[in-house]
Amino acid sequence: MRRRIVRLTLVAVGVTLVLFGVPLAAGLERYTVAQQRESLQRIADFAARSVYDDVVHDRVPARLPDGRDDDTAVALYDEDGDRTTGDGPPEGDEGVDRVLDRGLSSSPPGQLVAVSPVTDGDDVVGVVRAARPTSAVWSSLVPLYLGMVALAGLVLVAVWALAMRLAAHLSAPLESMARDAARLGEGDFGVRPAPTGIGELDRVGSALGHTAGRLDDLLARERAFSAEASHQLRTPLAGLRLRLESALDDPALLRPATVEDGLASVDRLERTIDELLLLARERSRDAVPVDLARLFDEAQAEWGDRLARAGRSFSVSRDGALPDPPASAAAVRQIVAALLDNAVQHGAGAVALTAREAGPDAVAVDVADEGPGVAEEDLSGSDGRRGLGVALARRLAEAEGGRLTARRSPSVVTLLLPLEPVPDGRSLTSS
Fold first, then answer.
1. Which CATH code fits 2-151?
2. For the chain, is the Cβ count within 10 Å smaller at the N or the C terminus?
3. What pLDDT sits at residue 136?
């Protein structure tokens, strides 16, 4: 890239110099030739005035005024076109003849010629011819042309140095971004390109850093989700294992009801796995109202017997006029399951599952028990005191635009779900 920038810059400047220099050189040549012609014309006019008296009285001038340099030849011609005195061709050339005939002048090849007539009244009685070789003109132009070429060379050298510096300034951050992109591809999500001061490159670097951050956050969420989801699977697996081990220890327990209970546990476990996989894969879902009545009936069937075997009561209640919130049924089912499992594992006494209005724009699902309760900071599950199930419930709630709250005395964990779909990236916490 550096060589390309330098090459393109030099080509652009070179073309500019040519487009500017060629017309300048041509204009300089025309200007110099015009200046030389004017100089010769002044010499010829001065000589014509100087020899006027001698020519009018048919005398040959003793001498003619010299030119300003040795390259200028001055000669006097009579009215017949013959040289009388001075340096020039013996007979008048085209310039002299034209002045004598029509008062015009021109230059022969290889020379610049200026003529001035010597007149007596209306009659041309002589012609002064001043000539200079064109080589003298070119010799005066050569230093100017060499100076222009040298100046163009200096400009190209200066442009080359600036282009090298500019190329290094532009390519260095790009090379750094390429290295950062390679690190990102190798799994280093801590890539954060440093600002360069170049707006376009800074926007690319910012996008690269933002992408790295999003990937890092996404993978962290995936890892956390996997850990939390595995917790959701351990509880039904442990229950199924205990029932099977009990049946093996006491064959009398191996009754059809026990087998049916085990099969029901397997079905619930299979559904839990399917729902967790669905939630892990889906990034966006159409908001469909959750059938809370059906969800509560399923919870009663699944958790009522379990709590009864533990000597604890379980009740569900829901206002019949309560609207169903738009959310993923699988997500809400897993949230409720995680909260009920938390009440079974860490709570005490009776457990109640209740649905109620929470203002004009939300529905609340409460899971209450008679235990010590859950602190707000325990909802993250980071300290392990409440397990990973509550943390999974919190993540799922936020993904649906809702949130979890907790309070003690009595112990209640509440799932708040909005009645209107919440845009991606927002929740009731930020609304």
1. 3.30.450.20
2. N
3. 80
The token pair that represents 111 in the structure block: 């020379």
CATH code assigned to 189-281: 1.10.287
The dihedrals phi and psi of 289, each to the nearest 5 degrees, come to -55, 135
Share of the chain above pLDDT 70, in %: 75
Query: Tokens standing for 311?
Result: 């000597």
> Among candidates 352, 431, 370, which has minimal Cα distance to 398?
431
CA-based angle 62:66:68, to the nearest 5? 170
Indicate yes or no: pTM above 0.70.
no
Candidate CATH numbers 3.30.470.10, 3.30.160.20, 3.40.710.10, 3.30.565.10; the one for domain 288-431: 3.30.565.10
